[in-house]
């Protein structure tokens, strides 16, 4: 009767049977207790990772905006103002990086490196672009890291940190950009410089392209010097870098050859058609 | 500083990195060799006569673990101790393999799950990150999952060898392990992928227990070897 029915039900639903067995497992056994602590440990680690990913995304977005802002520097008459604004933006980015540094107190940075690496690279790109516009030279990795040492003086701005700042908490936080992150950021910078070169010709600026090709050549030489010592990503960027350099060199070539023949006010037109040609070439397989 | 100086400095740093990796790779290769030897030794338990020699094989395996400890000791000296996760990938695989082997030995000896602390001790490393070269929790769990599939195999082979009680004990053990893993919220990573395989091991062992039950062979095991067929 009903017993047979029950039995058949069990046969059809082996899962039900399994769940019954599960209940036999003593929830307070040594094994279960240790897995409960594993659960806590893994959840804590994943939460931290997610928070860092979010911070990294914010850093990326703000850095990208700074770069767009800096591209306006060339054409705008109020250059000083834009530089100041970019500085304010970069300070905001550094505040985010400070939060990253605080998350990483007492942690092995490399454990969470994959979460923050994209943001750091974008920051390197933004900060080195600004540095180039200001000084026409390449910012060093030491210089970048110097700006990423934060002290507790900033506490007025973030009052909530005072509540959990005990004696054991260090009063400085720092984050170090790794050589590889720096290299990848600088490789991205060359793309921005190429854009800067093309647009500066559009504005009738004849000196900047030559300066830029000089600078890009130095960076390219540097990357070839590193060659395959670095990780795979660096070698991959080398290819794009070569293309950027070729574009800038071709631009300089055009300026040199045709610059003497064509009146200055027409140069921009000639140049824009030339760059279009390059772009089309690139589109071909 | 000129651009070329900067890149020269960076190249120097990257070159040093490569040297460290090369050194680590050498030690890891030696560790892999030892792990293979232990595995070969323990594989013996799957063969018929091997079931009688389990304690002896475990003891031999434990002797091999002292080699592991000296190799671990040398691995620790190859890189700065605060950069564990920078080079983690190099020894991750072999460490998981060693966790499995240690867990297997401990299971064969006492039929319990080895704790993280105990594995760390067997391998001559720390359980906590704060205290130096440690055993990452995900590596520990991965090793434990490998143990589960090995035990599924052992359950089948122990029936072939005429040991009908072992599958029942393995079943209890795996079920407890399964409920343990159910507590974890795993991310979509390699550990999760390994965990997804656990249910097939559970299923396999349940099938073995089922086969024994419908033939009354599990009762025979509890009554004793001299029971009716």
Automatic annotation (TrEMBL), chain A:
**InterPro entries documented for this protein:** Translin_C, Translin_fam, Translin_N, Translin_sf
Q: Name one GO cellular component term.
A: nucleus
One GO BP annotation is:
spermatogenesis
Major localization listed first in the record, in broad terms: cytoplasm
* Molecular function as annotated in GO: metal ion binding; sequence-specific DNA binding
User: Ranges of Basic residues compositional bias?
Assistant: 1-10
Q: Where does Mg(2+) bind?
A: 125, 192
Compositionally biased tracts (Basic and acidic residues): 11-24
**Segments of this protein annotated with the region Disordered:** 1-28
Subcellular localization: Cytoplasm, Perinuclear region; Golgi apparatus; Nucleus
Q: Which Pfam families match?
A: Translin (PF01997)
Q: Which residues cross the membrane?
A: none
Q: Which UniProt keywords apply?
A: Cytoplasm, Developmental protein, Differentiation, DNA-binding, Golgi apparatus, Isopeptide bond, Magnesium, Metal-binding, Nucleus, Spermatogenesis, Ubl conjugation
Family note: Belongs to the translin family.
* Functional note: Acts in combination with TSN as an endonuclease involved in the activation of the RNA-induced silencing complex (RISC). Possible role in spermatogenesis.
Oligomeric form and interacting partners: Ring-shaped heterooctamer of six TSN and two TSNAX subunits. Interacts with GOLGA3, TSNAXIP1, SUN1 and AKAP9. Interacts with the homodimeric form of C1D following gamma-radiation. Interacts with TSN and C1D in a mutually exclusive manner.
Instruction: State the name under which the record lists this protein.
Output: Translin-associated protein X
Species this protein is from: Oxyruncus cristatus
UniProtKB/TrEMBL annotation, chain B:
Asked whether the keyword Membrane is assigned, the reply is no
Task: Report residues binding Mg(2+).
Answer: 150
Q: Do you know which Pfam families this protein is assigned to?
A: Translin (PF01997)
Q: Which GO terms describe its cellular component?
A: cytoplasm; nucleus
Q: Which GO BP terms sit in this record? A: RNA metabolic process
- Provide the protein's localization: Cytoplasm; Nucleus
Q: State the superkingdom.
A: Eukaryota
Kindly state which keywords UniProt assigns to this record, in alphabetical order.
Cytoplasm, DNA-binding, Endonuclease, Hydrolase, Magnesium, Metal-binding, Nuclease, Nucleus, RNA-binding
Q: Which InterPro entries match?
A: Translin (IPR033956), Translin_C (IPR016069), Translin_fam (IPR002848), Translin_N (IPR016068), Translin_sf (IPR036081)
Taking the first listed entry, what is the main subcellular location of this protein, grouped into a coarse class? cytoplasm
The GO terms describing molecular function are: endonuclease activity; hydrolase activity; metal ion binding; RNA binding; sequence-specific DNA binding; single-stranded DNA binding
Q: Which residues form a coiled coil?
A: none
Oligomeric state and interaction partners are given as:
Ring-shaped heterooctamer of six TSN and two TSNAX subunits, DNA/RNA binding occurs inside the ring.
Which family does the similarity line name? Answer: Belongs to the translin family.
Q: What does this protein do?
A: DNA-binding protein that specifically recognizes consensus sequences at the breakpoint junctions in chromosomal translocations, mostly involving immunoglobulin (Ig)/T-cell receptor gene segments. Seems to recognize single-stranded DNA ends generated by staggered breaks occurring at recombination hot spots.
Name this polypeptide is given: Translin
Q: Which organism is it from?
A: Oxyruncus cristatus
